[in-house]
Structure formats: structure tokens, C-alpha cells
Amino acid sequence: MASIDMENVSIDIPIYNANGRSLKKRLLNVATGGQLGADDHGRVVVRALENLNFSLRDGDRVGLIGHNGAGKSTMLRLLSGVFEPTSGLAKIVGEIGSLIDISLGIDPEATGRENICLRGGLLGLSRTEISRRMDEIIDFTELGDFIDMPLRTYSSGMHLRLAFSVSTIVRPEILLMDEWLSVGDEGFRRKAEQRMSELVQATNILVIASHSRELIHHVCNRVIWLEHGKIRMDGDPASVTEAYFGGR
After folding, report:
1. CATH class of this structure's domain 3-94+208-245
2. Which residues on adjacent β-strands are paired with residue 56?
3. ∠ Cα 23 27 32 (to 5°)
4. Where exactly does CATH 3.40.50.300 map onto the chain?
5. 50 near 78, Cβ under 8 Å?
6. Is 118 exposed, middle or buried (0-12, 13-18, 19+ CB in 10 A)?
7. Which pairing describes strands 96-98 and 61-65: parallel, antiparallel, or unpaired?
8. The pTM is what?
């Protein structure tokens, strides 16, 4: 059983070397997602998320929407443990899997096979588990003999196929995504879509940030609309997307 509980959670991100007036002025002009302020030491800080209150339980498929800079990526990083709350309480129960950066840990000088081990280790898989599933992952990539070639010899499409094949082998209780993953040519894309659907079905809780109204309606049963780091609206997909997208 997985669960996520946020109680009055805020995140302040300090901006170092921001004492110059020109930099402060620039920050004021570009900081659309949060609110600028100062901490007790006089450092410039951006309040990226403010007073978040929500709970997620098994079966929740949550879409995060909002303009660029609204706080969606910060929310995903909070849920993944990259950020700790500056204030408030964040309680997360369950194994977390992140598809935010599927190429994290990939080494261009290592072979595809070696990169399966590297990426698999970052995903929390043991050496025994990686060895047991190595052939399955390699077969899914469709890379053939290239699997034993350095990654720097791969095309960008081959690189993504390898990263996708490894990253989607896990079945976490809580799955975090920044947009839906769709990689490769038409043939591989169909396989990727099928695996993504299986992954979403297998996870207890899904949180996905997206700008796609159609995807939100297809995948999610709840939507959280973030605006300037605050929750503007939290409800069913039809109501929230109608309010956010309108007639667009």
C-alpha cells in the first residue's frame, strides 16, 4: 500500500551570488513560477512551492498541469526526494520510481551492456536482478550487436531505446513522470506505448506532469493545477482541464 501526504509544504530555493542589483532585477523579471524573497541571512530565495496540502492513495493517477515555471518539476523533485520541504511535512510511503530523466547515469564511453548495469544500479536493481533480466532488456532494445559497442557510436534514437528499455523494467509503487515517454521509430514506438501502459497499470500511484489535455483525460483520474507554486485547483480531470484549458 502506497501513500503520499503533504501538509503545509513549502520549498524555498536560495539563489547564491545574487547580491548585485542587476541580477536581482533580472530574477524579478524571470521568476514566474515562484515568489522572490529573502531568508534570515539576507540571501535571495525563490519560494518554488507554497503551502501544499493533498493526499494520494492507491489507485490515484494524478496529472500535474500549469504554465512553464508553475512548480510542476519542483513538485516531482519533492516527491522523488531530491528536495526536502523548507517547512511543512511530507510523508511518502512506498518505493518510488522516476522517469524524469531516463538517461541519467548513462556513460557514452561504456558499451550498451555496461550501461544497462550502470542505469539498472541507479534504479535500485541488484547485480543478480540485472543479470537475470539482461537478455530481456537487450531483446527489447532491438540493438543487436550494437549492444557491445560504446554508446558514443549510437544514434540518438538508439541511445533513447537503450535508456527506455532499462528504465521501464522496474515496477515501483509510486511512479513519477515528466510527460509521457514515446521513443524510436513507428515499430518500436508501439512496443514502447504498450510497455508504458503496462507500467502505469502496475503502479499504485502515478504522478505525471503534462501539457496535453488528451493525455490527462486518457491516463488520469485526478488533476492538480499549479500556479506560481500554489495549488490553484484539485479535482477530477474534466473539471480542472476545462477550467485550465477552457476552449483551447
Report:
1. alpha beta
2. 4
3. 170
4. 3-94+208-245
5. no
6. middle
7. unpaired
8. 0.85
